[in-house]
């Protein structure tokens, strides 16, 4: 089994792999398998891997089950998480236990690396293909597709002479009636009730409290769950994209797969307008990957532009690609504008091969159905920052949400809910310590509301922000709960004194209380927020508390923390 990189197709001798899906039981008859897997939550496998995960860890599998198999494991992870590439590492060990032979050491791709996962995947793939071609040489009679020749597109766009619907610019998702709860293929169009800025007018960041009406949606959720929202591109970007590529946004087409077993994307209507395709599907606001430049070079009729694109897609050109795209966060749309001769010549059939699908964005749910029935609230920090490029960088989903104003007319947002990475104890007397600086406090608001409504006490919240009067989210609500004896609130306003004070400092100050709660009362510890520095700082504070208050040595403190993680009494939900 071989898996391909995003936007590319396998060809003989090319360093990409193609994934063959098969029934788990057939695994024992496979002579060569390459596993590509991510890690989610608290070291959990992705949803689409869970059936396989249960199968491969069955206790009744003999230790010789896979003795005829050669394998390789490629992990896709993020080193800011404590359980970095945990699934890939565990799978690699399990395959060895079952008698399989590793072709080469495990590859641990890291999203935090400046060059992205490619920094480790590139050399690993070279070694992999060397091993694979030794075992399975290319047949002499099988011609090699020349470099620079694109493979056929996955779909064809069959344009219609007349538009079936005159209102082709209206945003509509292909959503059919379904008896099940809303999902990615069947999202619920939730009416937006309020969209309120909750940071002060002089604060550097625009943060919104957004509320949706989920009446009759079939949606239910608990504290720690997340809502996924499917955003759209802005009208200005849609018009610019169509102009650069020479597309008529009002023209309609029918999407046809070239291969009989390939399904059409579930989110697109049939027939579909160019406007709908560009608005709802093509993620032109994302930073392009290396495969984008590789395919774009194949499609380019312009010699100078093609030469530069080939350079950026080569292994030797990755530093240049990082400097051109990754560091300044240059978008696909901006790249297309930089290569106008190539952009204007892109066949529409290749749009879905070239540009990735807009992926849904996950937000921690910040409310409880026990307190706000038929409502769902989220806290959204509108992403905007500057690089060396002229235009500021903007988050697609947060900027889109911020632009919606239910006061000016009905607004509907496609969304659905899934379990999150945080699970709270059901026993009423188990304390919880929640550390949520900034917007990281969102899931803890849902937890506190839910626990207070259920009569659960022992709620300890460490909240940090810059200024009490600018970004103290739900400050009045916390203080009211504190007066009622339902919450112990500890705050860290980092800019209100000469020396900055953060949540980790407050944890150290209250070390005796934290140790008492964890070691004597069986408390659960939760951490949510930005993944850059804060999680490491908080874990260092905990290690210090374990040593100073618990009298543990450094190795024993590390073992104590690992045990909390293993038993899910230490849980994190962080984001870059």
Automatic annotation (TrEMBL):
The gene from which this protein is expressed is NDOR1
Q: Which organism is it from?
A: Marmota marmota marmota
One of its Pfam families is FAD_binding_1
EC number(s) stated in the UniProt entry for this protein: 1.18.1.-
The reply to whether NADP figures as a keyword in the UniProt entry is: yes
Task: Give start and end of each Flavodoxin-like domain.
Answer: 1-129
Q: What's the stated role of this polypeptide?
A: NADPH-dependent reductase which is a central component of the cytosolic iron-sulfur (Fe-S) protein assembly (CIA) machinery. Transfers electrons from NADPH via its FAD and FMN prosthetic groups to the [2Fe-2S] cluster of CIAPIN1, another key component of the CIA machinery. In turn, this reduced cluster provides electrons for assembly of cytosolic iron-sulfur cluster proteins. It can also reduce the [2Fe-2S] cluster of CISD1 and activate this protein implicated in Fe/S cluster repair. In vitro can fully activate methionine synthase/MTR in the presence of soluble cytochrome b5/CYB5A.
Assembly notes: Interacts with CIAPIN1; as part of the cytosolic iron-sulfur (Fe-S) protein assembly (CIA) machinery. Interacts with DCPS.
What name goes with this protein? NADPH-dependent diflavin oxidoreductase 1
Q: Name one GO molecular function term.
A: NADP binding
Catalysed reaction per UniProt? 2 oxidized [2Fe-2S]-[protein] + NADPH = 2 reduced [2Fe-2S]-[protein] + NADP(+) + H(+)
Q: List keywords of the entry alphabetically.
A: Cytoplasm, FAD, Flavoprotein, FMN, NADP, Oxidoreductase
Q: Name one GO cellular component term.
A: perinuclear region of cytoplasm
Record-linked PANTHER family: NADPH-DEPENDENT DIFLAVIN OXIDOREDUCTASE 1, NITRIC OXIDE SYNTHASE-RELATED
FAD-binding FR-type domain location: 185-426
Identify the cofactor(s).
FMN; FAD
Binding-site residues, NADP(+): 439, 494-495, 500-504, 537
